[in-house]
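Pipeline run #58 for the internal structure catalog. This entry was flagged by the ingest filter as a single-chain record with no existing model, so it goes straight to prediction. Upstream metadata was stripped on purpose; only the residue string is passed forward. Reviewer on rotation: M.T. Logging verbosity set to normal.
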Amino acid sequence: RAVQELSPVCARELCARAAELSGLRKGWDLERRILDAARASFAATVEQAGHRYRRGETEFFWEGEPGVCRRFRRPGPGEARDAFEVAFPELEALASQTVPGPGEEPVRLMGAALGLARMGLAVGDRLKSAWDSAGRAGGPPAGKGGPYPEGDGPPRAEVDPGGTAG
């Protein structure tokens, strides 16, 4: 049920939500069972953080077509969403919905939509990359030398249509 409500949803958030809904205490064994069931039932993608300041993989589960997202799920009041736990296509949807006014920086507006009061270089670069990828290039630069070290590009989702990622 959590995947249908939250899609696309990262593995960590899915496990926390499923544990909350079931009333069970979150632990390694419960997390393994939740992820096994999600992998058997839903398509999954894995994104590389791909930034020199923050590396790793995040697995996302999708209710519909993996890699396609037309809406951004805003955090609840007083909550924030980690930009690295939001699927890149969802960040692109956020970028397409962001309309900066004169003098407003789109990356800061996107960060505010995530509920972030402050953001570091890695988060700003990820949001700038989503802004550019959504065809909204031309906003303020993310920083000296662009958002990625030479040879690295924006995060890419690797689609696992059989739901066997992991």
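catalog note: The beta strands are 9-10, 43-48, 57-62, 157-160.
catalog note: The chain is about 40% helix and 10% strand.
status: ready for reviewer M.T.
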